[in-house]
């Protein structure tokens, strides 16, 4: 191999090495630019978990018929119950392990599908493993528009009495503010 050929070979080796390092340099630069772009995007649009409000309005007392109203069960996890004395709100979370019971109007009972707890329309435990009665959420009336305001996190939870008919809480003392709106 002539000196000229050797020189050419060395030059092309040098060129490909330079190209290789160039590529690495550009790759690194692009990667870091991409990383900062993602960081900026995340800063501008942070991951936010939207929780449903815990205090909300559900309409006027007269918007609900007598008995159990299931319209807000899915959206708000509550049943609205109205009787001849007034209105209260039951939280549709089973006191055993937190499943959602179903209302059976023909039996006048809530029944939990997974472990079989049974509650009556007042939330008393009439069967199954539930250790407490259903919670009642606090309710009040907005003086301006007369709508019922529910505070989902403020709950009535009295100690039930163990009887032959289940875990029962006397009804009259439960029908008091802020867990009951008396009929006008
Ligand atoms: S969660 Fe309701 S009975 Fe178990």
Helix and strand layout, with pairings?
Blueprint: H1 3-44, E1 55-57, E2 67-69, H2 73-76, E3 78-83, E4 86-91, E5 102-104, E6 109-111, E7 118-120, E8 125-127, E9 136-141, E10 148-156, E11 161-163, E12 166-168, E13 181-182
Antiparallel strand pairs: 1-10, 2-3, 3-4, 4-9, 4-13, 5-6, 6-7, 7-8, 9-10, 11-12
FE2/S2 (inorganic) cluster binds next to loops.
What does this molecule look like?
Strands 1, 2, 3, 4, 9, 10 and 13 form a seven-stranded antiparallel β-sheet that branches. Strands 5-6-7-8 form a four-stranded antiparallel β-sheet, with no helix packed on it. A two-stranded antiparallel sheet has the order 11-12. It is built from two helices and 13 strands; from the N terminus they run αββαβββββββββββ. Helices cover 25% and strands 29% of the residues. Strand 9 and strand 10 form a beta hairpin. The mean pLDDT is 89. With 184 residues, the protein is of the alpha+beta class. The protein is elongated and about 110 Å long. It binds FE2/S2 (inorganic) cluster. The site of FE2/S2 (inorganic) cluster has 13 residues, from loops.
Query: Considering DSSP H and I runs of 4 or more, what fraction of the residues is helical?
Result: 25-40%
In angstroms, what is the radius of gyration?
33 Å
Secondary-structure-based class equals alpha+beta
Q: What about the largest sheet?
A: 7 strands, antiparallel
The N- and C-terminal alpha carbons lie at a distance of 111 Å
């Amino acid at each position: 191999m002539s000196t000229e050929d050797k020189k050419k070979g060395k030059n092309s080796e040098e060129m490909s090495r330079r190209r290789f390092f160039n590529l690495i340099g550009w790759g690194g630069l692009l990667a870091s630019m991409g990383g900062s772009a993602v960081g900026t995007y995340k800063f501008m649009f942070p991951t936010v978990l939207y929780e449903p409000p815990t205090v909300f309005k559900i309409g006027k007392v007269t918007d609900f018929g007598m008995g159990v109203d299931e319209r807000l069960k899915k959206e708000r996890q509550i049943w609205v119950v109205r009787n001849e004395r007034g209105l209260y709100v039951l939280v549709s979370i089973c006191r055993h392990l937190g499943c959602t019971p179903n209302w059976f109007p023909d039996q006048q009972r809530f029944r939990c599908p997974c472990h079989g707890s049974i509650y009556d329309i007042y939330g008393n435990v009439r069967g199954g493993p539930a250790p407490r009665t259903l919670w009642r959420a606090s309710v009040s009336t907005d003086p301006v528009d007369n709508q019922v305001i529910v505070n989902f996190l403020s709950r009535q939870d009295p100690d039930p009495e163990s009887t032959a008919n289940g875990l029962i809480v006397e009804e009259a003392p439960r029908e008091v503010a802020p867990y009951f709106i008396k009929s006008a």
